[in-house]
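Re: beginner question about structure tokens

> Can someone show what the tokenized structure looks like for a real chain? I only ever see the sequence side.

Sure, here's an example I had lying around. Input first:
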Amino acid sequence: MLAHMKTRHTEQDAEIVLTVPSVDGERVSNAILCMLELAGHKVRQVNDEGEELYTVEEVFPEAHPGMALNGFRLKMEMTQNELAEKLGISQNRVSDMETGKRPISKRMAERLSELFDVPGKAFL
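And the corresponding structure tokens:
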């Protein structure tokens, strides 16, 4: 494997750029990530403009799949009772799913996916 590396240092940081064959890219990236984490460094990915990227969990720490269900239901201007009728379940069950008191099963996610025409992953 032929790799090219260049570094640029500032008073506070060092930027290291590596070029490796694409077949090795993910493996090399994962190895570097593991080494940095073992050394106690927090690693955050950046986009092409250099802006830090954040996970959904970091941005919305209290989020749960029921929030997506609530959002899609409201977008369709549907009440909990109307959704419950379409799904053949109780309004209380819809409420419990939306508030996160009751998990959304894989089968229910599939049914919601068909109803709202969105990927089932939105509800899991």
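Each token stands for a local structural state, so reading them left to right follows the chain. The chain has a mean pLDDT of 91.
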